[in-house]
Every structure is written in C-alpha cells, then in structure tokens.
Amino acid sequence: MKTSLDCIPCFLRQALDVARLSTADASIHERILRDVLQWAGGINLDQPPPLLAQRIHRRLRELTGMEDPYRAAKNRHNAMALKMLPRLRAEIASASDPLIMAVRLSIAGNIIDMGVNGGFTETDLRRSLDEALTEPFSGDTDGFHRSVAQAANILYLADNAGEIAFDRLLIEQLPAENVTVAVRGAPVINDATMADALALGLQEIAEVIDNGSDAPGTVLADCSREFNRHFDEADLILAKGQGNFETLSDENRNIYFLLKAKCPVIASHIGLPMGTHILKRVRSSG
Question: How far is CA 257 from CA 32, 142, 176, in A?
Fold first, then answer.
C-alpha cells in the first residue's frame, strides 16, 4: 500500500508527540519539527507508510537520545489492559461463539494506537470494549472458523502494547500448539516488543518471536531470516492493526487482517466507513 499525502500530517503529529515526551523545552520541539519537515520534502510516496514511519522514528530517536520514548505509556497500557482480562474472559466463556467474541474484543483493543491517537485514554479503551458487539463489523466469520480449524501452523502478528492483552484472549481460543506470535524487533511508537509480550504472559500460551525490525508494520525485506522462515511456513497468518495491513495487504498469502479503520486513508482503501471493525481475508493463489 502506497503512502497518501494525508499521511504526512500524521507523521508530523507523531514527531511533535515524541518531542513533547522527551522534553518540555519548546525550542527543542521546534528544532525537531523543522528537521522532520525538511525530511518530509524528499519522501518516496510509493513506499508503504510504516516504512517511512520507521525512518522518521529512527531520526526522532537520534534527535531526542531516547531509545523508547513511549516506554512509560506502553507500561501503562499493559497494566490497564491486564486488569480488564478476567471480566472479558468471562464474557467470552458465556458467548454463543467464543472465537468470534474473542475476535471482536481483540479488534476493539486496536484502539490503543498512539500513532493515530496520541491522546488515547483508559475511558476510550473501556468504551471500545463495551461497544465491541455493537460497532459496525465486516468479515466472514464462518470462513474464519474454517480457516482456524484447518490450519496446522498459525502466525499471529501483534500490533501495539496493551492491545496484545486482547490478542491473548483470541490466542487462547486458537490451538495453542499451532500458534507462533511475532512482535516488533525494536521499539517504534507504542508497538509491542518482546518486553511487552513477556509482561502480558504470551510466552505461557504460545511461542513468541520478534521480527527483527523496527518498522511499525511488517516489512518483510527488513525482517529477520528467522521471522521470514516462520512467515513462509505458516498456512494461516493473523495480522493485527493498520500497520500490518499497510505492509502486507498486497502479499500473496493466506492472511486475515484484524483491525479497526481508524483513519480515512485506511477506510477509503478498504472501502468501509471509519470506525468499522474489520476481519478481512487475503487469499493465496498458491
């Protein structure tokens, strides 16, 4: 998926967010934003947004001297999500279709995205979870059931910290022995890394690997050899979030994308209204 002109203001907002996380000095905020504005003039719009975001956040880490500017926020989101799990497990257990209930709660958790909404709050998350069954939903749930039942090797591509708690609820409904979970290889925005996966206990229910990359998506050419082996061997890939959709939607693989359409660029590309909860399959022709 190519980068839209509408992505540029989002990159600039992310830069200002990082600047404000790193210091209260307005002069440094201005210097960082000017640096990013100069860089933005030469970007290649034929590349997917997460590849450009990877480069801009590398530059932001250089300018601020902070390896993981969102670490404190990620810790808060992990703790916030963990305390909600007992109630949500009970909802899944009592649902007529536990697997799809877990899917919908997992997608509701995709609201935890500081790349799109730097002002996200616990109230926003609770509202999203409470409305998981009433929000517009698009997807073939029967086909998803069949795909999960037939899969011998499932690769689950995680998205954000905090959100992975709700991914855990879904992974608990999958055949655990068949599942590998992949997180980012290094910090970028509030995307989940191995530290977040361990904090949420994902290693207790599935194999967990990192993809070797610091892109806020899955740029296969930038990922490790181990990750690409898992990707190639998987007969079903579950990809969470907009960044994974932006980087993998053109791949000729059996992928289900699970996301909330949180920006007009994604909504327009998929052809669904903003806010829709999406379970979208890309079928391999192989």
Answer: 34, 15, 19
The phi, psi pair for 79, rounded to 5°, reads: -65, -40
- Listed as own residue / partner, the contacts of 2-7 with beta carbons closer than 8 Å and 24 or more positions apart are 2/45, 2/46, 2/47, 2/48, 3/43, 3/44, 3/45, 3/46, 3/47, 3/48, 3/49, 3/52, 4/45, 4/49, 4/265, 5/45, 6/263, 6/264, 6/265, 7/49, 7/52, 7/265
Q: How is residue 217 written in tokens?
A: 């998506």
Can you give the residue ranges of every domain in the chain?
7-64, 84-282
E-strand ranges in 17-99 read: none
Assigned CATH class of 84-282: alpha beta
pTM above the 0.90 mark?
Answer: yes
Q: How many Cβ atoms sit within 10 Å of the Cβ of residue 19?
A: 24
Q: Kindly report, residue by residue over 178-233, the tens digit of the pLDDT.
A: 999 999 999 999 999 999 999 999 999 999 999 999 999 999 999 999 999 999 99
Secondary structure element (H or E) that encloses residue 180, with its range? strand 179-183
User: What are the tens digits of pLDDT across the range 249-281?
Assistant: 999 999 999 999 988 888 998 999 998 999 999
